[in-house]
Q: What sequence folds into this?
């Protein structure tokens, strides 16, 4: 089985990415699993090119530092030519209605003024999946529709031109922590949030982590209890603590909010310390990171080559 997962360099990696996904990718990844930094997907909104390049490199370093096998990693844009070619073939089999129906396109302000890339990015995502021959794509609810489109396009290509693609399925990843913004616990912690006060980044130093946690929003109940509906801020802190130390949030006991915040800060600092150190070490050794990236690109291109060649040939263009 080949499971394909990605992280978009829309900002710096945070503790939510780590606890909710990356840590698990490193721990549970099977020999066929693949992971990539989806830098081309970060171009569908306004972005800064040098920052995108730096974030892509940083996220690759984070994935390696998490302990994911470098042989299973690649950067999406290293396959830009292959993906560009397959995206075009797939776009020519996909209707405007199918693309415009995507709820994410609508949610992100899709309309006549939207970038075309925002409309067609699910087709690029289909190309990501189909080129690597992934049969399973673990995604949250917001992405299942895109995997469904990849499924439709794979089937359509196979039945119209000839069998080339594995038909992928969306799978639900095992439940993991869903970390919320410390300053606004009604929303999830996000890489692209403008105000970083409520976001703990993997590369934040211990003092900054302590400061962000000491300012985390709580409530006026003044009781440390796990009641996500009534006390979302406190519940979020309990969940972060529990995910770091490996217990259930319901079994955690603290007397005061101050005590809770100090314990969460200590746990987060300890959880992130080895990861942060390793990322810094990797970023300081450009040759090693370049080697990992080049190696990953070659493997990913090798996996893609025969499918792309067959698809182009069957589509009558090469
Ligand atoms: N707050 C979170 N708690 C738990 N898991 C999270 N993930 C993201 N945020 C949280 C998981 O991290 C993986 C990679 O994320 P992504 O690049 O696919 O983008 P995302 O889900 O849109 O993450 P962000 O950080 O919120 O970025 P932006 O700001 O660009 O939207 C995914 O497996 C995701 O579930």
A:
């Amino acid at each position: 089985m080949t499971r394909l997962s990605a992280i978009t360099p829309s900002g710096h990696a945070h503790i939510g990415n780590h606890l909710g996904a990356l840590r698990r990718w490193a721990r549970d990844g099977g020999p066929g699993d693949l992971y990539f930094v989806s830098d081309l997907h970060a171009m569908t909104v306004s972005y800064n090119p040098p920052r995108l390049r730096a974030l892509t490199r940083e996220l690759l370093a984070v994935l390696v530092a998490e302990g994911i096998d470098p042989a299973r990693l690649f950067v999406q844009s290293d396959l830009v030519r292959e993906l560009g070619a397959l995206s075009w073939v797939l776009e020519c089999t996909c209707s405007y209605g199918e693309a415009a129906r995507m709820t994410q396109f609508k949610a992100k302000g899709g309309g006549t003024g939207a970038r075309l890339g925002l409309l067609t990015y699910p087709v690029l995502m289909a190309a990501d999946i189909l080129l690597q021959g992934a049969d399973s794509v673990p995604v949250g609810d917001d992405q299942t529709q895109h995997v469904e489109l990849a499924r439709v396009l794979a089937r359509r290509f196979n039945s119209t031109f000839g069998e080339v693609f594995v038909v992928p399925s969306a799978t639900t990843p095992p439940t993991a922590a869903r970390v919320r913004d410390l300053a606004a616990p009604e929303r999830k912690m996000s890489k692209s949030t403008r105000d970083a006060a409520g976001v703990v980044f993997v590369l934040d130093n211990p003092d900054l982590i302590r400061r962000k946690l000491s300012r985390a929003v709580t409530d006026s109940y003044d009781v440390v209890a796990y009641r996500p509906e009534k006390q979302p801020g406190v519940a979020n802190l309990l969940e972060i603590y529990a995910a770091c130390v490996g217990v259930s949030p319901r079994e955690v006991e603290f007397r005061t909010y101050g005590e809770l915040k100090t314990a969460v800060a200590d746990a987060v600092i300890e959880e992130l310390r080895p990861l942060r150190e390793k990322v810094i070490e990797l970023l300081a050794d450009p040759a090693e990171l370049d080697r990992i990236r080049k190696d990953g690109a070659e493997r990913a291109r090798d996996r893609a080559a025969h499918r792309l060649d067959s698809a182009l040939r069957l589509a009558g263009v090469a």
In short: Strands lie at 4-7, 34-37, 73-75, 136-138, 169-171.
